[in-house]
Write a structure and sequence with these properties.
The chain is of the alpha/beta class. The chain has helices at about 5-15, 20-30, 35-45, 65-70, 80-90, 130-135, 155-160, 165-170, 190-200, 215-225, 230, 235-250; strands at about 50-55, 70-75, 95-100, 115-120, 140-150, 205-215, 255-270. A 7-stranded mixed sheet has the order 3-2-1-4-5-7-6. α2 (about 20-30) crosses α10, α8 packs antiparallel against α12 (about 235-250) and α10 (about 215-225) packs antiparallel against α12 (about 235-250).
């Protein structure tokens, strides 16, 4: 059952904005550092033949690297257009199925998965459902692997200070003086606490990756147009905000900016099969006295 509070209603609304321009999302959004998938194979076992359920696959930004590593993937994506682009991107992999569905209500198949993967998508899933359903989807000892990405301090730091004037002018919800946090200050306790509260998983293993991406003005405008918070602005405010940012980049930063990302891999496992689930031991033959 969904929570109908204002925050939950806004989460549902924002989660649906990505499907409004799936081609733009596929073109503009960055992928993930290659070493993340190496670590995912090491920590979560996503190697050749691993059976993976991907939650919120989008256009396949994480699905493709997993498929290239030989995983068998069922990718669930809510957006019709996003799922169509994902099918196109993954057409060469017979071991990948893209399902257009709401993960919260999608019926789990009988055969459990080795891993559940959610790349920059888990926070869009109903908090009342996501942990329990992910655990239900996994075999004993299976891995829940959540990938989170955040903008952190670094790159063109002065630009990200100056650009706040644009946000404060056109988006009244912007906190004054907002700045990207330092990577070492990003708090991961919320996820670890949620995992612990669920009672369905063991401790969380964390891996972190900092990386820079340089954008031209046009490229940066495209990626901003994919962000749910920008898409949710009234059209006049959104275009005013983007115009303000274009002017700043072109006037003060020679037509390009560098953004620093922090990507975090969070892996937790369901308990292994317990002794009570194991078949009973064969009876010990009686010895003659």
């Amino acid at each position: 059952m969904r929570d109908d509070t204002p925050d939950e209603t806004r989460r549902i609304h924002l989660s649906r904005t990505f499907d409004e321009d799936a081609e733009l999302y596929d073109r503009a959004r960055p992928g993930y550092p290659p070493e993340l998938f190496d670590d995912l194979a090491e920590v979560a076992g996503t190697g050749p033949g691993c059976r993976v359920l991907e939650v919120g696959a989008g256009t396949g930004k994480a699905t493709l690297p997993l498929a290239e590593r030989g995983c068998r993937i069922t990718a669930v994506e809510l957006g019709t257009d996003m799922a169509a682009v994902a099918r196109r991107n993954l057409a060469g992999f017979g071991s990948v199925e893209v399902v257009t569905a709401d993960f919260e209500t999608w019926p789990l198949p009988e055969e459990p998965f080795d891993a559940v993967v959610a790349a920059t998508a888990f926070h869009w899933i109903d908090p009342a459902v996501r942990m329990v359903k992910a655990a239900d989807a996994l075999r004993p000892g299976g891995a829940l692997s959540v990938v989170a990405t955040q903008h952190v301090a670094g790159g063109s730091e002065e630009f990200f200070v100056e650009v706040q004037d644009c946000y404060e002018r056109f988006d009244p919800t912007t906190p004054p003086g907002l700045r990207p946090p330092a990577a070492e200050d990003v708090d991961t306790s919320d996820h670890a606490d949620e995992v612990a509260r669920s009672g369905r998983f063991g401790p969380v293993v964390f891996r972190r990756y900092e990386w820079n991406l340089t954008y031209t003005t046009a490229e940066y405008m495209e990626v901003l147009r994919t962000y749910s918070s920008h898409r949710a602005l009234p059209p006049e405010a959104r275009e005013g905000l983007l115009g303000c940012i274009v002017g700043l980049i072109d006037r003060r930063y020679e037509g390009w900016v560098t953004k620093r990302y922090l990507t975090e891999l969070r892996v937790s496992r369901t308990p292994p099969r317990s002794s009570v689930d194991a078949p009973p031991a064969a009876p010990t033959p009686h010895r003659a006295r």
